Structure formats: C-alpha cells, structure tokens
Write a sequence for this structure.
C-alpha cells in the first residue's frame, strides 16, 4: 500500500487537465508564420520537397506541408514555426497560411453540418482506416485515447467496427489497393456519418501526391468534415479539431 502511494506521488498527475491550453514541449512545429521580410520567394518555394510553398502570392499549404522545417532553417527570418497545435479546420482553403497573417487556424461555422453537433456532441465513435499509411499518424491517433490525452472523457473514441461508428478517420495517401476497402468501410457506417482526414498524406497525398499508385477518388466525391494537418498529426491537434467540430468548449 505504502509503495503504491509512493509511486503515485512520484508519478504525479498523468492526464492533461485542460487539453485546450496544454503546452507542447520539445521540437514540435505547429502553425507557421510568414513575416513580411523581403526574400527570394522562388528560391524559398524551391526548397520545399512537397510543393507546399507557393511563391506568388507567398503562402504555405498546411495540407501539403510535412513540417520538415527546411524552409525555416534556410530562411529563419522569413518563416517561423510556432507551437500552436490548433491546426485543424473544416475548410481546405483555411489550411493555407499567407504572408503576414498570424491569425489562428479555425473552422468555418457555416460548413459544419447541423446534425453533427446535434447527434454526436455527447458521443462520437470513429472507425480508423489506414489507407496506405506509414503507422505514424496511426500511432498518434492511438495515443489520443491514452491516459495523458484521454479523449474518451469527451465521449470521443475509436471503435473496432464501422457498424458501431459515426464516422471514419482516414490516414495515408489512399493507395489503389486501399480505395475499395475504404469505400466498403464508409458504406458500412450508418448515416449520418462524418469524414476526417488525419495527416498530410490523407489531405493531399503528401510526398506521394500525383503517384499512379494512388486512387483518391473517394476524397473528390465526398464532403470532408475535418482536415487535421501534421506529419504525423499531434494528438492535441486531432482532439482540439474534433472538439471544435462538435462544439465542445
Ligand atoms: S516545413 Fe513544410 S513548407 Fe517548409 S519546406 Fe518543409 S514541407 Fe515545405
């Protein structure tokens, strides 16, 4: 008994009390900011391995960014990555960060379907499909339910069967081999259902964009309810994005 109390004392609190205000330690790269400093914009865009930087007008597309940090290392006065992990939004356009803009990334309230908040605010069960993912986003999504992040406290959980789910969370760039299983999974979820794209690969194809090995028709043919950038996504980015979608404060 005494030993148990001793262990509990030394471990302290395991869970993060306020997921909205948590601070991310270490080298985490969150929302980038592009200053108004004058630089060779083409040279800056050419650095990016995924084409996430567009030179005219200068901006960074978080849906393509792998957060490798190359641009910031080469042009530290021009691009800085903040620790702001709130990157999720329901609007593809809002993933694009423009020069001189330091506003946070937020969802567009007009694009949130009414039934989502009405039906899923108290309980949201999600089926995860790794559509040619590399296990990085999948690991981080798994961490969302651990004792630290504990997203289950809001009724948000992953389930084993699409029949028990209210929506699908897609990771990976969606290879041809995974296009049909993804569609079958989605079809098995009862309506109304939501779609969340987690990670750069799922949002744009990432470094595989344009590969003939991909089949991304599913993305083009369905309404996407939430984009969660990251490579991989951070649990706080995912949980805060879903909480915003559901209207949880
Ligand atoms: S951090 Fe993003 S925008 Fe910058 S070079 Fe890497 S992928 Fe491109």
């Amino acid at each position: 008994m005494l030993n148990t109390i001793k262990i509990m004392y030394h471990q302290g609190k395991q869970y993060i009390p306020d997921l909205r205000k948590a601070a991310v330690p270490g080298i985490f790269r969150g929302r980038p900011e592009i200053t108004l400093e004058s630089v060779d914009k083409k040279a800056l865009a050419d650095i990016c391995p995924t084409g996430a930087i567009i030179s005219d007008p200068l901006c960074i597309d978080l849906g393509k960014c792998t957060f490798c940090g190359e641009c910031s290392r080469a042009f530290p006065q021009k691009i800085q990555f903040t620790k702001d992990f709130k990157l999720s939004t329901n609007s593809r356009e809002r993933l694009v960060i423009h020069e001189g803009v330091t506003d946070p990334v937020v969802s567009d309230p007009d694009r949130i379907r009414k039934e989502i908040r009405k039906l899923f605010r108290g309980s949201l069960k999600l089926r995860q499909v790794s559509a040619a993912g590399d296990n990085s986003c999948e690991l981080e999504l798994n961490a969302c339910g651990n004792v630290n992040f504990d997203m289950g406290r809001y009724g948000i959980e992953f389930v084993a069967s699409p029949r028990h789910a209210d929506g699908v969370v897609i990771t990976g760039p969606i290879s041809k081999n995974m296009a049909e299983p993804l569609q079958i999974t989605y079809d098995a979820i009862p309506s109304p259902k939501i779609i969340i794209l987690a990670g750069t690969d799922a949002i744009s194809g990432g470094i595989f964009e344009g590969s003939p090995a991909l089949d991304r028709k599913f993305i083009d043919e369905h309404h996407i309810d939430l984009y969660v950038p990251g490579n991989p996504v951070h649990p706080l980015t995912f949980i805060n994005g879903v909480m915003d979608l559901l209207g949880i404060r």
About this structure: The first strand starts at residue 32 and ends at 34. Residues 47-50, 52-53, 60, 65-71 surround iron/sulfur cluster (CB under 6 Å). The longest helix spans residues 176-188.
